Structures are given as structure tokens and as C-alpha cells.
Amino acid sequence: MTESLEGTEDLLISFERFLARQCKEESTIRMYIAEVRKFLGWVRRSGRTLPEIRMDDLLSFRGDLEKAGVRSATINKSLSVVSTFFKWAHAQGHASGNPAEHVRIIDTQKAAPPRWLSAEEEEKLLKIAAMEQNPFKRARNLALLHTMLYAGLRVEEVSDLRLESLRENELLVFHGEEPARAVPLSPESSAQLREWVRLRGEAGKTEYVRSPYLFITERMGAMQPRAVQFVVEGYSEKLGFPVLCQHLRHTYCRRLAEQDMPIERIQRLAGQKSPTTTRRYFQGLDHFS
């Protein structure tokens, strides 16, 4: 196949013969060819060539289908067909691998709606956190809450924050060693995080000085996800209702939805792969009916 996809029809004919050798029904073969033709058209419009397609491109393809209102079961069928096509194309030397292999299939079961905090619950949580007597824990825990309530980070992302993540008016989120996205910080959240960094620096412990991570415990130079969860869930009894880290992230996303922020921007800020996930936060809002 040529780089410009000019050999699309020849490629489809070869793939069709492969399917026939697999003893597929004629109706199934027609469906496979139609799905692959649709995908190759998307590739052409995106300005990419088949060997250049990566998993992120497949996620974009899936997202475009979701935005177009295609049913989840139909999207799953398309992804399955495209994965079969790439497996064949890779074996034939037309593709560098199978980028569709690990693309998550959409769950067609109706998921439970996300739980977010009301304004009153949010205020109560912050007040209780501010009552902590230990200055080290108070500053750290309030900073933790701000990264999830007002920057929408996942618990793993909070644990993986570096000191260098804290910029002048934004928070740089890492996935592994690579920066994944930048999230704006309000002046209040920025001040809360900087207060934590100041107190942490004044503590002067060797493990604090050496640690590149933003959040630490009193005994360790890194705060693991379970330790973050322990802090947040520990407020449940005093609050009188259960609170989890994901509730704080959901609260952030819901707040943006209530502010009428475009769904694509919320998806980008939250680092969500699918607009279907983001769309849940618009439930019951008149401007998203």
C-alpha cells in the first residue's frame, strides 16, 4: 500500500480475500469491508497514513463516532473490525502494529451516575480539613483537597505530582515521566499549594529536601495513592457522609459543566478519553438538554 492511501481499493480486495479464507459469511464480509472503508476514509480526512496511525488516533476516531451520536454497540463493532483489520495489515506489512488492540471497548451497561459534592458539603469538608491541629498535615491536606476539588486530578495523578508541577497559575500533570496536561489554578488554590510547599521546605528533613514529589508524608518522601485516599476518606465520619477521591474529581467536572464550559474543554482539562464520560456531568442541566 502506498503512503497516500491510493491503494485503498486493492487493500480492501486483499482483506476481503483474507476474510473469505477465514470462512466468514458473505454478509459478515460486506459489513467488515464497509467498516474498514469508513475507517480508511476517516484516516484520509485526518491527513494521516496507515503506518502513522497510533492508539491516540483510534481514540479520536472513537470520540468522533460518539460525538456523532453513534450507538455504543455500533462503535464497539467498528473498533472490533478495525482491530481485526490492523492485525491483518500488520502481518502483511501495511501497518507498523495494531493500534486498536488496547483501545477500550465502551461499556454498554448503564453506569451509575457520578457522585459529586453539593456546595454545602464542599464547604463543610474544607472547614473540617482546616481544623487539623498539626500545621504540616493541615497545609498538606488542604493542598490535596484543592488539587482534586479545583483541578480535578485523579488520585494517581496527585501522587505523581512533582515540585516542578506547580507553575505560576497552573498545575502540570504527569503520566509517568511525561507531562500529560496543564490545568489552570485559581489564585486561592495556587496560594494553598504554595503555602504547603513553604511549610514542607521549612521542615528541613533530608527525605523532604531530596524528594522531587509535591506531596509527601511525615515519614516518606512520596505520598502513595492509598495514603491520599486514606486522608480523604478519613473525613467521612466527621462529615456524616462518605467522601472518596473520585467524588472530588466529579465535583470539579460538574462545576465546570454548571458554568456552561464546552464539553470538549472539560474533557481536555480532566484528561478524559471519551466525551461520553464527560457528558455525564451535564445531567439535569437545562443548557445541555
How would you characterize the overall build of this protein?
Keywords: DNA integration, DNA recombination, DNA-binding. InterPro entries: CB, DNA_brk_join_enz, Integrase-like_cat_sf, Integrase_catalytic, Integrase_recombinase_N, Integrase_SAM-like_N, Tyrosine_recombinase_XerCD. GO terms for molecular function: DNA binding. Residues 6-90 form the Core-binding (CB) domain. The protein is mainly α. It has 2 domains: 8-91, DNA polymerase, domain 1 (Orthogonal Bundle); 119-288, hpI Integrase, Chain A (Orthogonal Bundle), CATH 1.10.443.10. 56% of the residues lie in helices and 4% in strands. The chain contains 14 helices and 2 strands. The chain has helices at 8-21, 26-45, 55-67, 72-91, 119-130, 135-149, 155-159, 187-203, 206-210, 225-233, 236-239, 245-258, 263-270, 275-279, and strands spanning 170-175, 178-184. A two-stranded antiparallel sheet has the order 1-2. The longest helix is centred in the N-terminal third of the chain and has 20 residues, at 26-45. The chain is elongated. The model has no long low-confidence stretch (mean pLDDT 88).
